[in-house]
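Example S7 (structure tokens).
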């Protein structure tokens, strides 16, 4: 069972990496460079379906994570919070910063699986689960810092960075609410 899940996780990781590479190419192809007092737009690729990114709710500073949901939606994770974008417009915040049970302190990574948004809080070492309306679903405690994670079916596949780093990868079962494999 674990080998099947790991194979599917590898497929998912490849899909995530390809989307991340596409996003990085998009960022690089629309980079502004300064030459003296002249601002030049560097364009490596022509995209006829581009939509300008507009901050409507909250300005973003340091970006921690990105998750592409579909062709029209994506999530950006910054120190200030997690924001949903639809067609390039910031359409809502998912959860909020704070110390209540349903609030994260420092959102660091964001992923989506089956219409559930998973947010990793690097400060509290918790996963926070929300729906796309921003409603809190659940909070999952984990006892180590992590580098990355992906969600597949009933599992969260966790790439460890802290206390459990010797395990490298943990397999957390959402139904059993515990680590079931390393």
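Recovered sequence:
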């Amino acid at each position: 069972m674990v080998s099947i899940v790991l194979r599917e996780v590898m497929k998912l990781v490849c899909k995530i990496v390809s989307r991340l590479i596409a996003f990085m190419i998009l960022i690089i192809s629309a980079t502004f460079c300064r030459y003296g007092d002249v601002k030049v737009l560097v364009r490596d690729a022509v995209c006829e379906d581009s939509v300008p990114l507009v901050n409507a709710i909250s300005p973003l500073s340091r970006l921690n994570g990105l998750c592409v949901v579909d062709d029209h939606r994506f999530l950006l994770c910054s120190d200030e919070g997690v924001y949903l974008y639809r067609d390039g417009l910031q359409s809502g915040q998912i959860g909020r910063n704070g110390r209540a049970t349903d609030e994260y302190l420092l959102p660091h990574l964001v992923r989506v699986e089956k219409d559930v948004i998973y947010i990793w809080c690097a400060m509290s070492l918790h996963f926070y689960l929300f729906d796309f309306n921003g409603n809190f679903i659940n909070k999952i405690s984990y006892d180590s810092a992590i580098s990355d994670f992906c969600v597949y079916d009933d599992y969260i596949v966790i790439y460890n960075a802290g206390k459990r780093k010797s395990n490298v990868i943990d397999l957390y079962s959402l139904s059993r609410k515990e680590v079931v494999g390393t």
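Notes on this example. The first strand starts at residue 32 and ends at 35.
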